[in-house]
Amino acid sequence: MDLLNTLVEKGLRRELPTREEALAVLATSDDELLDVVAAAGKVRRQWFGRRVKLNYLVNLKSGLCPEDCSYCSQRLGSKADILKYTWLKPEEASQAAAAGVAGGAKRVCLVASGRGPTDRDVERVSKTIAAIKEENEGVEVCACLGLLSDGQAERLREAGADAYNHNLNTSEGTYGEITTTHTYADRVDTVQKAHAAGLSACSGLIAGMGESDEDLVDVVYSLRELDPDSVPVNFLIPFEGTPLAKEWNLTPQRALRILAMVRFVCPDVEVRLAGGREVHLRTLQPLALHLANSIFLGDYLTSEGQAGQADLDMIADAGFEVEGAGTTTLPAHRSDAAAAAGGCGSHGGGVSLCGSAAGAPADASGATAPAGCGSGCGGCGSHAAQDEPEPVAAAVAPAEAPAQAAPGEVRPDLVAVRRRGAGTDLAPNA
Fold it and tell me: Quick one: which of 162, 190, 159, 170 has its CA closest to 69?
């Protein structure tokens, strides 16, 4: 296809595609899907080879959020049956993080529900960052605490944070339909604050909320303009008890087209396969590795992911390799620019001094590593407050012998959204 040849050439030159070209990727047919994946895969390999960066998410505070984000099981008024607990102690968070690092994670992401941190919260998270880095030499730490006030990004950077995550989620034009308690501009402002403080900006989107192709292209172009180092691509997990519980809009094929479009628009950026991949990509997850160069391991904030060992097996079987300690994540032109700005190489591109034991094998139990928001909000996740992390079941629970799906048919009956903590004795502590 002339379209794909053009997009590959532009991606290798880091040239922005036109909006029409991006929309055309989303409009390709299922018959063309493998051609689309192969083309975007050429761009991915140009800038990232066959490396896959592993990220591990620790949920510092679960539920109890005053914001009304429609996609989130922790939202104000949510009826979702989820774990709720107040802040983990620094040593508890460090213990959870160690499990992820042992499984090969190069970055630990710390999330806390809420509108944004108080100064006391920033101090609390700063102590947690110190505890994690003391026990896990060289690990990258990303914070995800909501909207930032003036000076807070600088304090997190001084405490040792390497990156800050705050997603745009959807287009500016439709943002008010998803959330009313804060604005799209608030989110942009927080990403810009992280950038200005020398933190690596991490900002992405959620697909599958009923948005149009134009909305998807709008938000990805906005992300390109903000120029984050990493772009998490989340797929909505329709949680019972939330306003979007019935929004099953994605097929595995559409999810792959969305990832390909993101790669073409953001060719040299860390594209992270995030929340909802098990639910929507299902058996096509390995194909997504040809598009994304980064994934979350294991569980999400409030729902279960597949076992960490299964992720490692998938990476190896697909012919990819886990990105090891000392390996620069981003291409030299991005990491060099970050270093010149005084930022840590990991958040500017993963310079070796910010690496970790990313090549370490999972433990013998194959315990899962906590991952992202159950609603796909691009935050981070972990076990509830407990003494020892324990394995949880895989998120993908096969239904009884489903009938053959028609091309383009959305099949929510193929999976079950499993609440994190279901079947355990973990109890809310708030």
Answer: 170
